[in-house]
Design brief:
Keywords: Amino-acid biosynthesis, Diaminopimelate biosynthesis, Lysine biosynthesis, Methionine biosynthesis, NADP, Oxidoreductase, Threonine biosynthesis. The chain is α/β, with parallel strands linked by helices. It is built from 8 helices and 14 strands. It has 2 domains: 138 residues, NAD(P)-binding Rossmann-like Domain (Rossmann fold), CATH 3.40.50.720; 184 residues, Dihydrodipicolinate Reductase, domain 2 (2-Layer Sandwich). Strands 3-4-2-1-5-6-7 form a 7-stranded mixed β-sheet, sandwiched between helices. Strand 13 and strand 14 form a beta hairpin. Helix 3 runs parallel beside helix 5.
Length: 342
């Protein structure tokens, strides 16, 4: 950390996304003069390694944000609602990974490859979209810019990582229990996930859509500035440790040539075309794990609709679906001169 860098605080430093944020700040050589790790009082006093140092975790409090330029928050909605206004009052710009502020009219909801200009209107808080929304919008934006998408039908296959580090450990424990003819533990999840799958267990609305599915609908419309975009999603939790997958059916006003779609995806930032038709090799969660790019493939004409395209994607939920997107937002804020100069 140098004297000319930014003073950054990570709120929720001990979680799966918090520890990924630490890795990314080091990996991307983020300009830091101070890094403050904040968590609950339960974690206070513990240390986390960062660039050869052991940083002590502090319990978040009203004095935690004094002198801080940037806050990267990934500690849950209620904690963000409690503490981010305090951080803004102290002069910090906050990037929040929770759902607390995503649909607030005065809070930009940003995927840097898609709508970085929305950062120019921030009032201290910028929202990081839901993981499934980030992965989908990065993949679809190159196509949407050429010919606006009229309708999206999405089916997601979401890994245990979306529910955090404890959920990932629980799936391992469930698998071990099942293989030993024992009852699998269910604490993070309502049902066994190992050797199983279930529809996403967030609350269901009167129309029959769960909260996770409606995040994809509402957040994509906001990011694309397309309030009338027709979207329907079905979200499924699957027994994969890390990286989410999505099957997307797209409808355009006119036919969209498959060759053009492939070329656009191959050249777009944040995505990587993965297609080996001869060997039936397309994006897989195991390949997406630990990768910055969203892997996209099996792009094909929808045989049921002349103006339809089908594609498949996989992306690391903890990385691009959460921590990386937050760090990229912070980098974009600096590039656009929206954070006070150190």
């Amino acid at each position: 950390m140098g004297s000319q860098g930014y003073r950054v605080a990570i709120l929720g430093a001990t979680g799966a996304v918090g520890t990924e944020l630490l890795e990314l700040l080091a990996e991307r050589k983020f300009p830091l003069s101070e890094l403050r790790l904040l968590a609950s009082s339960r974690s206070a006093g513990q240390t986390l390694a960062f660039q050869g140092d052991n940083l002590t975790i502090q319990a978040v409090g009203h004095d935690s944000f004094a002198g801080i330029d940037l806050v990267l928050a990934s500690a849950g909605g209620s904690i963000s609602q409690n503490w981010l206004p305090v951080a803004v009052q102290a002069g910090a710009v906050c990037v929040d990974n929770s759902s607390a502020f995503r649909m607030a009219p005065d809070v930009p909801l940003v995927v840097p490859e898609v709508n970085p200009a929305d950062l120019d209107h921030h009032q201290g808080i910028i929202a990081n979209p839901n993981c499934t929304t980030i992965l989908m919008t990065v993949a679809l934006w190159p196509l949407h810019q050429v010919q606006p998408i009229q309708r999206i039908i999405a089916a997601t296959y979401q890994s245990a990582s979306g529910a955090g580090a404890r959920a990932m450990a629980e799936v391992k424990a469930q698998a071990q229990a099942i293989l030993n003819n024992k009852t699998p533990p269910t604490e993070s999840f309502p049902y066994p996930l190992a050797f199983n799958l279930f529809l996403h267990n967030t609350p269901i609305n009167a129309q029959g859509y769960c909260q996770e599915e409606m995040k994809m609908v509402n957040e994509t419309r906001k990011i694309f500035h397309a309030p009338g975009l027709r979207i329907s999603a079905t979200c499924v939790r699957v027994p994969v440790l890390r990286a989410h997958s999505e099957a997307l059916n797209l409808e355009f006003e006119q036919p969209f040539p498959v060759t053009q779609a492939r070329e656009l995806i191959a050249q777009a930032p944040g995505v990587k075309l993965v297609e080996n038709w001869e060997n039936n090799y397309f994006p897989m969660p195991i390949d997406a794990t630990g990768q910055d790019d969203v892997l996209v493939g099996r792009i094909r004409q929808d045989i049921s609709h002349p103006n339809g395209l089908e594609l498949w994607l996989c992306g690391d939920q903890i990385r691009k679906g959460a921590a990386l997107n937050a760090v990229q937002i912070a980098e974009a804020l600096i590039e656009r001169g929206l954070v006070k100069t150190p």
